[in-house]
Amino acid sequence: MRRTGREVGDLKSITRRKFGAALAAVSVLGLVLRLLGFNFEGVDYEQCLSAWFNQLKEIGDISALAAYEGNYNYPYATILLLLTFLPVPSLYSIKLVSVLFDFVEAGVLALTVMHGAEGEKRYGTGLLAYALVLCNPLAVMNSGYLAQSEGIWTALGLLSFYLVVVKEKPGAGMFVFGAALTFKLQAIFILPIILIAYFYKKRFSILNLLWVPAAIEILCIPAIIGGCGWGSGFVKFFRLMGEYPFMFYYYPNIWTFFQEAPYYVFGTVAVAFTFTALLLFAVLFVKSGKKYAVQDYITYAAWTAMTCTMLLPCMHERYNYMAEMLLPVSAVFDKKLRVPALLLILVSTQCIGQQFLDWPRFSYYALAAANIVIYFYFSAHCFGSLYREYRKNGGAGAC
């Protein structure tokens, strides 16, 4: 993986000792921000999480997993079952798990950007990435206030990205990706850039994808022991698909303007449109002839994840979480992305706030219009840079 010499101000030259102290300070700040919301009971906790927790606690052993009625997959239910044995209120224990993965998520992304920097410069770069993720208001609200689990699947998704794209360990990376999928199907939003990297590098076998179902089955072993059937994790996936047959489901994307469109007609169109956009990007990525740095992969991972959320139907208000973590970090290296990153965070924060925290409401049409402008600017930026490289290299491609 090629390193880059792009500068990010004075932060990149801090020493290792200062890095450790600053990392600790940011960690404390991130934890305090979350603890401020620990007593808040969000609607997901009140209507879903607490009910699932109490159901598992009432049975009190591993057989509870066979009776589990929640719509999160069995690995998350296994975590809930383990939490029932702790002398801690369910509100706090559930949030603590999500907070733990917030730190994993921030650490993985910090390691990723540090891999692409040089010498002591990498400490400042890693610190900035760590802070941008851990103190991102969307991450703070998601785990500390709402007890939601976006940090779990995003942390695992980013770890799979790190292992496959950066460390070039495809077996381990695809296993972790399978683990991410078991927590939420939206982890698949990191898969396009992983597959694009595969076709670009051609350094590992496509058979490594078999680690994905293996991981799903392995992580569902406690549920199988508890009485669920073999393949129960996959059955849960299929039950979730089509559970909400709506083009618009509270995330302000292009389908906000077509809320009444019939899902069973336009849903297929939306999937085809998304696939076409990703395919065009993949072709240009491979053919551009550009030598990609770690930071380039982070930017394109943000774009592919955001493309899925903006173009696919039935997106919840928090499904763009991965792009919302990646784009601010990408903006550290690319000044042209700093305003779009800030605007994306503001739009998404308002969306979460008005949906779950009783903030003053903005029109979803206004939020969607802002997101569409951000997305098309980001798309033009990514496609434009790749096309310029393609022209410069004579369309020769690179392997």
Question: What's the arrangement of secondary structure elements?
Answer:
Blueprint lengths: L15 H20 L7 H17 L4 H4 L6 H10 L6 H26 L5 H14 L2 H9 L4 H17 L3 H14 L7 H11 L9 H9 L1 H5 L6 H9 L22 H25 L6 H18 L9 H13 L4 H19 L7 H29 L7
Give the termini distance in whole angstroms. 13 Å
N-to-C SSE series? HHHHHHHHHHHHHHHHHH
Strand content: under 5%
**DSSP summary, beta strand count:** 0
Largest sheet: none
Runs in which pLDDT lies below 50 for 5 or more consecutive residues are none
Structural class: mainly alpha
From the alpha-carbon coordinates, what is the Rg to the nearest angstrom?
A: 21 Å
Percent in helix: 55-70%
How many helices does DSSP assign?
Answer: 18
Overall geometric form: globular
> Residue-averaged pLDDT, rounded?
92
In short:
The chain is mainly α. The chain contains 18 helices and no strands.
Task: Please give a structural write-up.
The protein has 18 helices and no strands. It is mainly α and 399 residues long. The longest helix is centred in the C-terminal third of the chain and has 29 residues, at 364-392.
Give descriptors for this structure:
399 residues; mainly alpha; 18 helices
